[in-house]
Design brief:
This protein has 212 residues and is mainly alpha-helical. Helix content is 50%, strand content 5%. β1 and β2 form a beta hairpin.
Length: 212
Amino acid sequence: MSSITVMSCPSYFTESFDEFKKLLTAQNSPDNTVRNYTKYVSDFLGWVNDAKHVHDLNDVSWGDLRDYQLFLREDCNLKGNTINQRFCAIKKFYVGILERAWNNSAVAKVKYDAFRGTVPTSQEVSILLGSIRPLNDWIMVTLMSECGLRICEVVNVTYSDIRRQRGTLYVKPSKNHEDREVPFPATLLKVTEHYCRMLPQMPKKTDYLFPG
């Protein structure tokens, strides 16, 4: 498998590349998105310079972009979903920094067969939950299972996020920068309150439910 990093961003593209980083930061993009998107665009700019000998990004054609798709698929052996992720970054760069309208017909997404994973049965979930110790780990996994939380959301739950009277849990903005309230099952609430009483001291409203 070929290396997907052709070279670092050429010096004559530095200004546009720096503006792209500012754009992602201004949009409050997650650190992981900033890290990945800047790498994807840097790889692309390096390829443009190395393979096409282009020094002005306005000279990059739709044919050049399609050639880059082929390079990622055939030379780098990347899968369709990975190529599409890279082109999401390139599209944002083109629209936000170069102020060029993106042509979805000229540069279409790469088709691929997505594997969604095996969905566990209710019995398998019960077996999994029944095998988890200690109690705080059980609550964390149950929050993901019953309330649909991501692990990054679970670790940021505070005591005040539990809306007892409403029977809901407030979930702080994470991946999509949107907060939401999700149903908090009564049985899970009862176990969570028992867990809180077992802590060395009762959590304050702003304390994390799972410190450390």
